[in-house]
């Protein structure tokens, strides 16, 4: 990976890019008039610092990956209007809960969870891949939302750049009320255009029995997995499907203690 800036970037943006390069131990390249294609001759992955945030380019793809809250904004608006949210229901989330998102991705579910648990709760998001981790952590810190409740929810999320199994093994028993998994679907969903730019940078590793067993120890109330409805992981790991949904994905639950809802 190399770090650069947009064309004709001001000094403060160039300094920010140099700081990122130093932080992650990679090379900073002055943009000058070089195209992304020219930069890809130096590295398969390009991190571009702009005035409005970070953009990542993977060689062989045309669309950059950048942070956006996606459907989280609409979901929070619906909750504010008294509607329900299937993920919130599946997790049994309530004010003051602690929520461990083992597969952060674009953080949409963590943003909604953060809104629900409020200032008394805690949201930790784990991201094993360096580039998505950088992009999403910075986005959660800097994204300006017209919906104040959503912006505050973003700011409360703690991003940890670590594989979920490593993190779970370091946790004490009953550390989080909810442990949540949303792995990259084993079968791509055509309509999931919002995450398409993430795919070149994502972790496609399957969930392991070791991770589920650690999650059972760490979760105080329940483990929840979102996955493609045809995924064998629901049966393989003993998840009870939340309910029949007319969607390509669904949720599975393992109750580990406390109140079952």
Automatic annotation (TrEMBL):
Annotated TM spans: none
Domain of life: Bacteria
Pfam families: SAM_MT (PF04445)
InterPro entries the UniProt entry points to: 16SrRNA_methylTrfase_J, SAM-dependent_MTases_sf
Keywords per UniProt: Methyltransferase, Transferase
Keyword Methyltransferase: yes
PANTHER family from the UniProt entry: RIBOSOMAL RNA SMALL SUBUNIT METHYLTRANSFERASE J (PTHR36112)
Keyword match Cytoplasm: no
Name of the protein: Class I SAM-dependent methyltransferase
């Amino acid at each position: 990976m190399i770090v650069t800036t947009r064309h004709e970037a001001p000094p403060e943006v160039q300094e920010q890019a140099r700081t990122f390069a130093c932080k992650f131990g990679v090379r900073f390249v002055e943009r000058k008039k070089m195209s992304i294609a020219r930069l890809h001759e130096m590295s398969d992955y390009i991190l571009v610092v702009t005035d409005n945030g970070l953009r990542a380019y993977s060689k062989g793809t045309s669309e950059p990956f950048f942070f956006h809250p996606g459907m989280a904004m609409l979901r929070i608006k619906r909750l504010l209007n008294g509607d329900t949210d299937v993920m919130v229901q599946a997790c049994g989330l309530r004010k003051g809960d602690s929520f461990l998102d083992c597969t952060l991705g674009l953080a949409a579910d963590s943003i909604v969870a953060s809104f629900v648990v409020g200032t008394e709760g805690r949201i930790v998001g784990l991201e094993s891949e360096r580039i998505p981790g950088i992009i999403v952590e910075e986005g959660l810190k800097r994204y300006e939302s017209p919906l104040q409740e959503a912006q505050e929810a973003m700011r409360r999320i703690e991003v940890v750049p670590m594989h979920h199994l490593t993190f779970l093994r370091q946790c004490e028993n009953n550390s989080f009320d909810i442990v949540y998994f949303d792995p990259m679907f084993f079968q791509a969903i055509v309509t999931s255009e919002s995450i398409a730019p993430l795919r070149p940078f994502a972790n496609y590793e399957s969930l392991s029995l070791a991770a589920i067993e650690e999650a059972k120890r760490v979760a105080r109330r329940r483990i929840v997995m979102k996955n493609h409805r045809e995924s064998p992981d629901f049966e393989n790991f003993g998840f009870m499907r939340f309910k029949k949904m007319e969607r390509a994905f669904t949720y599975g639950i393992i109750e580990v203690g406390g109140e079952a809802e």
